[in-house]
Amino acid sequence: MQNSLKNIFPNFSNELIETIEKNGTLQDFEAGTILMRTGQYIKNTALITKGKIKIYREGEDGGEFLLYYLQPGQACAISMICTVKSEKSQIMAKVVEDVSVMMIPLQSMDKWMMEHRSWYEFVIETYRSRFEEVLEVVDNIAFRSMDERLEFYLKRHSDACGCSEVNLSHQEIATELNTSREVVSRLLKKMEQRGLVKLNRNQIELLK
Amino acid sequence: MQNSLKNIFPNFSNELIETIEKNGTLQDFEAGTILMRTGQYIKNTALITKGKIKIYREGEDGGEFLLYYLQPGQACAISMICTVKSEKSQIMAKVVEDVSVMMIPLQSMDKWMMEHRSWYEFVIETYRSRFEEVLEVVDNIAFRSMDERLEFYLKRHSDACGCSEVNLSHQEIATELNTSREVVSRLLKKMEQRGLVKLNRNQIELLK
DNA sequence: ATTCTACAGTAACATTTATCACAGAAGATT
DNA sequence: AATCTTCTGTGATAAATGTTACTGTAGAAT
């Protein structure tokens, strides 16, 4: 099978793969689905096997500040952390490209840490990489101005989708950077004048 | 002994305490010491048994953006994460009140996860709480304006020291919020007019 | 007491970002 | 084709923040 767990999570031991297949439940969700809302209790950890998810921090006023993407072979660090303590979610997860996720129940997540070295390493690596990503987000909003943040945002998007077109409206981008549509339009126009992007309706082509 | 590890880390099992005492090294550092710089390789995890440490994210231009405080009974999540993978530090740690720390070598940190349930729980809880704190930092810089961030900063400081006086110059505060001294002075003056603080030289008294 | 230095206050101005207002273009709907 | 809706561009203006410049003051050093 092409999309076997072993291909997507190559570092998992064979025994771990078997255990996951026995205890996990594979679920599909369509683009647009909200997988998790701030304040909800978390009962599962999700391993992404297909598709793409965006993780947001929600503001009181309805802001949706983008933290990072989750892709096949990854898992949500925050859900892992909260799972163990059965805490409320601190974030919002939205499916942006139809996903398949392997749902791991709380107890297994915990148990496997002791039993499977490769699971332990995966969990630690997940924490590490997500922490780093959030720190990079902090850098951006703490030290950089909106034009740099916008460039970073576009770059991250194209890295995540592996393409050079961003199919989002200015309004959507503005929401995820917690600024206004006009600011995004203006900055994009300047980027176009600098030859960095080409602007179309609902699409931004990255040129460099 | 008053300040025994068991008192400071009440959730650690007795065996774990013994193991720590056997394998760890207790070290003291004076206020002002930089325990760790961005980019340094990490070879130890530090359990704080006395004093106070501030964790910063360093900007390229020399900014020192405050992430959070570490206090007795806590450990640096980032050092733990990096320790396991022997990665470079993503942060800077500065002693703000003479500390004693128990240094745990890389291998032990890793080994104990499998052997000591209470260590495992401590590590997970450390990840969780630090992640949450950093997310709160993101909230502040993403969604709030400088006056709110300043209020939050002062509150956090007084929570950390358990007192209502902040013995810092406006310049120091400005650096940790990545803004300018004048802005801090202005906002503090406004807060004083609103009756929230009383301003003295090198000291801000919180009144509410 | 005098001098020096770090700290604090504040005015004036520049820059960045946010908001308001409106117009035109691209698609979708009828 | 006519109408509607969404998206984009842009000017005008406001508000927040950053910068420059200067002043005064408290405490340390001489």
What would you say this structure looks like, in words?
2 copies of one chain form a homodimer. The first copy, chain A, is of the alpha+beta class and 208 residues long. The first copy, chain A, has 2 domains: 5-141, Jelly Rolls, CATH 2.60.120.10; 144-206, Winged helix-like DNA-binding domain superfamily/Winged helix DNA-binding domain (Arc Repressor Mutant, subunit A, Orthogonal Bundle). Chain A is built from 8 helices and 8 strands; from the N terminus they run ααββββαβαααβααββ. Chain A has helices at 5-8, 14-23, 77-85, 106-115, 117-143, 146-161, 170-177, 181-193, and strands at 25-29, 34-36, 44-58, 64-70, 92-105, 165-166, 197-200, 203-206. In chain A, the strands form 2 sheets. In chain A, strands 1, 2, 3, 4 and 5 form a 5-stranded antiparallel β-sheet that branches. A 3-stranded antiparallel β-sheet of chain A has the order 6-8-7. In chain A, α3 packs across α5 and α4 (106-115) packs across α5 (117-143). The first copy, chain A, is elongated. Chain A starts with a helix and ends with a strand. The mean pLDDT of chain A is 92. Chain B binds a DNA duplex (30 and 30 nucleotides) through residues 145-147, 169-171, 179-183, 185-186, 188-189, 199, 201-202.
List key phrases describing it.
homodimer, 208 residues, alpha+beta, Jelly Rolls, Arc Repressor Mutant, subunit A, 2 domains, 5-stranded antiparallel beta sheet, elongated, DNA-binding
